[in-house]
Design goal:
The chain is mainly α and about 150 residues long. It has a domain of about 90 residues: Arc Repressor Mutant, subunit A (Orthogonal Bundle), CATH 1.10.10. Helices cover about 55% and strands about 5% of the residues. It contains 7 helices and 2 strands, in the order H-H-H-E-E-H-H-H-H. It has a two-stranded antiparallel ribbon. Strand 1 and strand 2 form a beta hairpin. Helix 1 crosses helix 4 and helix 2 packs across helix 3. It is elongated, with a radius of gyration of 20 Å. The protein starts with a helix and ends in a 13-residue tail after the last helix.
Length: about 150
C-alpha cells in the first residue's frame, strides 16, 4: 500500500499554515509555487482539507487559507482520510472465493481474510490517530516557538 502524493502535499500545507503569521491567510497560489504543483491541483487538495474542517478558506483579494484547528487537534489520520478516504487496505474483490472453492470453505476463508486485514486497518488507524501535526513539528523544533513567517512574501 502506498499513499498518493496528495497526502504529502497536504502535510506540507499544514506545515506552511502552522508557521504562517497569525491573522494572515496564506494564498493557495503561493503554496502551489512553493510545492511546484499547478494552482488548480492545489485548489483540489485545499478543498478536501476545507471539507474535513482541517483548514479554513477565506475568499477575496486578501483571502487565502489558514488552520481551522489547533495543531494538537490535527492528526495524521485526519490528513490521510481527507486525501484518501477511510483506511481500508484490502480491496475485497471476491477472488478469495475462487481460491477456497465450495460455499462453506469460501465463506469461512473470506471472513478469515477480512478479519486479518481489518485488524491491520485498525492498527494503522489507531497509530495515525495518535500522531498529531504538533507531535511532528515538535520532533523538528522541540519546545521552541515555531517560526512565524509570511509565506505570501517569502
Amino acid at each position: 500500500m502506498q499513499l498518493t502524493k496528495s497526502v504529502e502535499q497536504a502535510i506540507c500545507i499544514i506545515i506552511f499554515l502552522a508557521t504562517q503569521e497569525k491573522n494572515t491567510p496564506l494564498s493557495s497560489d503561493e503554496i502551489s509555487r512553493k510545492l511546484e504543483v499547478s494552482p488548480s491541483y492545489m485548489k483540489k487538495i485545499t478543498r478536501k482539507l476545507v471539507v474535513k474542517r482541517l483548514i479554513d478558506s477565506v475568499p477575496g483579494q486578501s483571502g487565502g487559507i489558514s488552520l481551522a484547528r489547533r495543531l494538537e487537534d490535527i492528526t495524521m489520520l485526519d490528513v490521510i482520510e481527507a486525501m484518501e478516504g477511510p483506511i481500508a487496505i484490502y480491496p475485497d474483490s471476491g477472488l478469495i472465493r475462487l481460491a477456497f472453492g465450495g460455499a462453506g470453505n469460501a465463506e469461512a476463508g473470506e471472513q478469515i481474510l477480512r478479519d486479518a486485514f481489518h485488524q491491520a486497518d485498525r492498527l494503522l488507524i489507531d497509530y495515525f490517530a495518535s500522531v498529531t501535526a504538533a507531535d511532528l513539528l515538535r520532533q523538528r523544533f522541540g519546545d521552541e516557538q515555531l517560526p512565524s513567517l509570511n509565506w505570501n512574501q517569502a
